[in-house]
Amino acid sequence: MSEQNKSSLPGDPNCPICHGVGYVRLDVPPGHPQFGKLVPCVCRTSAIEEARRRRLFAMSHLDKLGHLTFETFKPHGRMGTGPRQARSIESAYNFARQFAENPSGWLLLMGGYGCGKTHLAAAIANYCVEKGISTLFLTVPDLLDNLRFAYDSPEGGFEKRFEQIRSVPLLILDDFGTQNATPWAQEKLFQILNFRYINRLPTVITTNLTLEEIEPRLRSRLQDPDVVAKIKIDAPDYRRAVDEVGHSELSALDLMGKYTFGNFSLREEEGLDPRDVESLRKAYNAAREFANDPRGWLVFSGPYGNGKTHLAAAIANYRAGMGEPPLFVSVPDLLDHLRATFSPNSTVTYDRRFEEIRTAPLLVLDDLGTQATTAWAREKLYQLFNYRYNAELPTVITTAVPLEEMDPRLRSRMLDTRISRIFLITAPPYYESPRAKRSKRRRKK
């Protein structure tokens, strides 16, 4: 047979089994269902499978994500990452590697923007493609666009594309929750995930949403511990400065950078009453101790302008220097951020914003008591305090309002000595110190 005729055959011309014909007859006895029938040769099925893998690879745009591998991922975080965050990143890395070695069940990677979810998901995809596993990697918006465009394909295009997506051996969905939540989109996603859930098909999903923000039918599938391994990455956005940790819209820490323990004054040279100096010293020592090992609650109380905010900001800046910056926010600003989520133009939901605040690994609340005392504000603060109290999450609070004048529900939490320590700073404001008053008199003369 000529070389030209060989190249036109459906099989591999060099195949020792079919010699390029592409089909063979099975060696089975008469009466067998396959007796006398032609079946595709292994060379042909391998070629079909390889072509299928190439189509999935092209659809996934993995050629543009080839640099996102396990080798290029930093399993301990970048320089400046805190110990707790490093442990979270390493745990996610190890889970992703185990899944790539043996894709089974579902892997749900959760965390804020830029924490490494997509890198790990793409690393799984690239690793499995190298192993010959048919893999489809898509952002959820791209998946839905693929289905919409398939409607304009030749007859049967949508059904083929839909079947291809829902039954692919390994499906990786990136940015789950960023899609347009139309009824059609929700229904298609449910059909795909429900099919894969019922058939236990390996699936990886990344999302920056909390489970409570996900549509109930989908959430029920993602909450099944027998199928889904849920990994939350508690790490800063790799694309931002270390001290932002995803709180760029909330935290005022960047405005408080000048307040450190190094430039805090005990005001011993100002002629203060020794008891006032001692109250500053006790608060300062407590702040240093807390900054080294944040546990429980630390409350600084006393008049305005006497150093409470300085100490709270010094704690925050110290932790930021350790690679674990907290959420630092004044209480009035915190409530404004929550109110802003009700705007039609808000890009974040109230539930997500409140969850971000109440679960912050370290929360510094400045100026408690200066907020508008509406019923709504009181209820939100109580919910915040009660959650962090029950979870025993490290919290720093400053207030100029006497505790006996506060909402009894908040006061009861702050007065619990099992979790909270209160330091009353009795020193007068800086501008009312004896030295400041003498300077003022000299200027008048």
Question: Quick gist of this model?
Answer:
The chain is α/β, with parallel strands linked by helices and 445 residues long. The chain is built from 15 helices and 12 strands. Helix 3 runs parallel beside helix 4 and helix 9 packs parallel to helix 10.
Describe the fold and architecture.
The protein is α/β, with parallel strands linked by helices and 445 residues long. The chain has 3 domains: 3-40, no CATH class; 54-233, P-loop containing nucleotide triphosphate hydrolases (Rossmann fold, 3-Layer(aba) Sandwich); 253-432, Rossmann fold (3-Layer(aba) Sandwich), CATH 3.40.50.300. It has 15 helices and 12 strands. The protein has helices spanning 3-7, 42-60, 83-101, 117-130, 140-150, 157-167, 183-198, 216-222, 274-292, 308-321, 331-340, 350-358, 375-391, 408-414, 434-444; strands spanning 23-25, 38-40, 106-111, 135-139, 170-176, 203-207, 228-233, 297-301, 327-330, 363-368, 395-399, 420-424. The strands form 3 sheets. The protein has a 5-stranded parallel sheet with strand order 4-5-6-3-7, sandwiched between helices. A 5-stranded parallel sheet has the order 9-10-11-8-12. Helix 11 (331-340) packs antiparallel against helix 12. It is elongated. The model is unreliable at 1-8 and 239-248 (pLDDT under 50).
